Amino acid sequence: MSRNWQEAVKEVIDESRVLTDISDLYSYSFDASFGTFVPEAVIQVKAREEVVSVVKIANEYKVPVYPRGQATSLSGGSLPVHGGMVLDVTLWTDTLEVYHDDLVVVASPGVLTADINQAAEEHGLFYPPDPSSAHVSTIAGNLAENSGGPRGLKYGVTKDYVIGLEVVTPEGKVMNTGGRTIKNVTGYDLTKLIVGSEGTLGIITKVTLKLLPKPQATKTMMAVFDDIAEAGAAISQTLTSGILPSKMELMDQNCAISVENFQPFGLPTDAEAIILIELDGHPDVLEKEIQSVDEIVRGVGARYTVLAETNKEAANLWKARKMVSPAIAAVKPTKVSEDATVPRSKIPEMIHRLNDIKEKYEIELVVFGHAGDGNLHPNIMCDKRDQEEMMRVEEAVGEIFQAAIELGGTLSGEHGIGTLKAPFMEDEVGELGIEMLKKIKDSWDPNNIMNPGKIFAEPGQKLVLRDE
Ligand SMILES: Cc1cc2nc3c(=O)[nH]c(=O)nc-3n(C[C@H](O)[C@H](O)[C@H](O)COP(=O)(O)OP(=O)(O)OC[C@H]3O[C@@H](n4cnc5c(N)ncnc54)[C@H](O)[C@@H]3O)c2cc1C
């Protein structure tokens, strides 16, 4: 092989989309998590045939391939930890077609999730998965991470809507899985295997998603609690009452204070917890259901509730919830965002454990999240430049994972394992679990070129949030 792999790639991809300038490479060296890893080239792919050609070259030269969407991963999913090439799909947005009569949408990998939502709504339809990053993340990234969001409580997560895929395998072959039918039990479910595989089993080049009819109406309520354990109990009691809200989002006092300091929305700052609840469905039914929920949450101790009277008031409350991330990011330069998830009955206990961890390690920790499905987001505000503080944060994060697993929960409800949580994987899935996962990886990707360094811990790998 006289030519190098970058030259080989330039023979099959327009040179303007093969980036090798050092400034470009640095732009692709980080994501929304931790760590800086500079790739050797960035390839902005726009067609299936381009991906096939590049992946074949990667196999020939044994070069790592790092698929990448908008790089909003919070677990280091797209980081090129072993150099090689980044495959950027963000320019690849040419297909976004809604098939109204089939309640299906077909999209290119780089399409933003919010654009899929909008296209569905234009047809009176609905794509329920709603990660808070929907306006800045790609559908392929959502699939690779199996992203969730507030509506996961009633509607499930990304995997529940993916019915067909076109994928370029790690050996450069084109594979189609599933199709346009809602039901399909032909063979192993390869569609579901790819969803959530974090770019380690192939490159997603086209997605087919199921849509639902758009709910006719929604109602939003804020319930305010002086005791966060009562907020946890209110969630359990609502969910066992026969009413299934579309969203139940928790914010602790620190979140409310941060939001009000950042941009006032009128959230109470003296309460220990707030739950935002959304119901959706037929307007007549909603009137009755919201009254029942009001009685339930007051019955378990809500100090008061506020029912949004107009769409504008409801939008204001949900905007306040969306503002939590930017508001807490303004408190300190670094934000460590976790997504430990526990069975719903364990939410109060998990919150107590988080408080103990906060005190033990003297860290600034806030809790918010999709509490209705047990998916909490403990966030630690810290300063990456303070080595001593970051060492305490690393220990605290390890204990958060341990607490979640001990309570029968999981390391990650929606952000994925990536590099950051890889050292903790075996604690959850066990030695045999890792062995079976590795067998799948090895048979799909014999040269280990597809997103290497993710999901599976490397020998001696530990959680490191400091710049070393
Ligand atoms: C402010 C903020 C809010 C967030 N809110 C949520 C939330 O509510 N819920 C949630 O679940 N997550 C959330 N996230 C995390 C993140 O947005 C999601 O994980 C998202 O799905 C990542 O999409 P992306 O386009 O940025 O992908 P990237 O970060 O670029 O990549 C993510 C993974 O997808 C893989 N990948 C990308 N494209 C392909 C492809 N074509 N084929 C195969 N693999 C591919 C990458 O290799 C990587 O492993 C949030 C992040 C931020 C910064």
TrEMBL record:
Signal peptide segment: none
GO molecular function per UniProt: (S)-2-hydroxy-acid oxidase activity; FAD binding
EC nos: 1.1.3.15
Residue intervals of the FAD-binding PCMH-type domain: 35-214
The organism's place on the tree of life at top rank: Bacteria
Coiled coil: none
UniProt entry tagged with the keyword Flavoprotein: yes
This protein's record includes keyword Oxidoreductase: yes
Requisite cofactors: FAD
Record-linked InterPro entries: FAD-bd_oxidored_4_C, FAD-bd_PCMH, FAD-bd_PCMH-like_sf, FAD-bd_PCMH_sub1, FAD-bd_PCMH_sub2, FAD-linked_Oxase-like_C, FAD-linked_OxidoTrans_Type4, Oxid_FAD_bind_N
Keywords: FAD, Flavoprotein, Oxidoreductase
PANTHER family, per the entry: GLYCOLATE OXIDASE SUBUNIT GLCD (PTHR42934)
Assigned protein family: Belongs to the FAD-binding oxidoreductase/transferase type 4 family.
Name of this chain's protein: Glycolate oxidase
Organism name: Texcoconibacillus texcoconensis
